[in-house]
Amino acid sequence: MIGKVTARRGGERSKPVAIKAVFFDVGETLVDESREWAEWADFLGLSRLTFFAALGAVIARGEHHRRIFRLVRPDSDFQQLQQQREQAGKSYRLRATDLYPDALPCLRRLRQAGILVGIAGNQPQAVEQALRLAGVPADIIRSSASWGVEKPDPRFFQQILAATPGLKPSEVAYVGDRLDNDVLPARQAGMLAVFLRRGPWALLQDARRETPGIALDDLHALPAILCRQP
């Protein structure tokens, strides 16, 4: 069965579009990043409250999340700190337990409905294998590192469309927790944008802007929405 959804633009209902592929962001969409950020705070010798507050300030200013490392360690950059953490044997490794409880059931239901499931986010290439080892059911898993381009660059979303040959942009959905990196550029690429309102970026960005397209608080309802007949 091919999923169908009615996209909304400017408050008006458009012609139903068959959704044949759904791509998901990684952090705070499928993966709870709380442990990763907490471990960074511990490694840097900061209280978690202080580190999380600094991260919130970076997000609120619309800056790249790596700006936090310059903020708390002005004499170092992210690459240096990451290397130090690697050498100390304290690198973050994604675990199956880091997945949100609704992630795997959602992906399985979409695949059972005959919808192609993809995962593509701003992540190091190692995350691709980590997701596979965690048992994530996806037809395509890619990262910004393997593609050589990060969101919100339009070329990232063109890579998604190139990975689904034969499909129109309107037949592909992208699910993410950020308006700036996920929802708006996906919509500009002609895809159906789904805003997942969880995590710090979603909390702060949702309070500032009108949400375009579909907005959900979790992934439980997504398969039913995409598979609903008009």
Layout of helices and strands:
Blueprint: E1 3-5, E2 8-9, E3 12-13, E4 17-19, E5 21-24, H1 34-44, H2 48-60, H3 67-72, H4 78-87, H5 103-112, E6 116-121, H6 126-133, E7 140-143, H7 144-147, H8 154-162, E8 172-176, H9 179-188, E9 192-196, H10 200-206, E10 214-216, H11 222-226
Parallel strand pairs: 5-6, 5-8, 6-7, 8-9, 9-10
Antiparallel strand pairs: 1-4, 2-3
Helix pairs in contact: 1-2
Any key phrases for this structure?
metal-binding; six-stranded parallel β-sheet; 11 helices; two-stranded antiparallel ribbon; globular; Rossmann fold; HAD-SF_hydro_IA; 230 residues; 2 domains; alpha/beta; 40% helix
Summarize the structure.
It contains eleven helices and ten strands. The protein has 230 residues and is of the alpha/beta class. It is globular.
Which strand-content bin applies to the residues?
A: 15-25%
Give the spatial strand order of the biggest sheet: 7-6-5-8-9-10
Nearest-integer average pLDDT:
89
Oligomer: single chain
Cα shape: globular
Using DSSP, what is the number of strands? 10
Total domain count: 2
Annotation field: number of helices: 11
Outline the low-pLDDT stretches: 1-14
Cα(first) to Cα(last) distance is 13 Å
Question: What is the CATH architecture assignment of the largest domain?
Answer: 3-Layer(aba) Sandwich
In the CATH scheme, what's the topology name of the largest domain? Answer: Rossmann fold
Protein name: Putative HAD-superfamily hydrolase
Keywords: Hydrolase, Metal-binding
Pfam families: Hydrolase
GO molecular function: hydrolase activity; metal ion binding
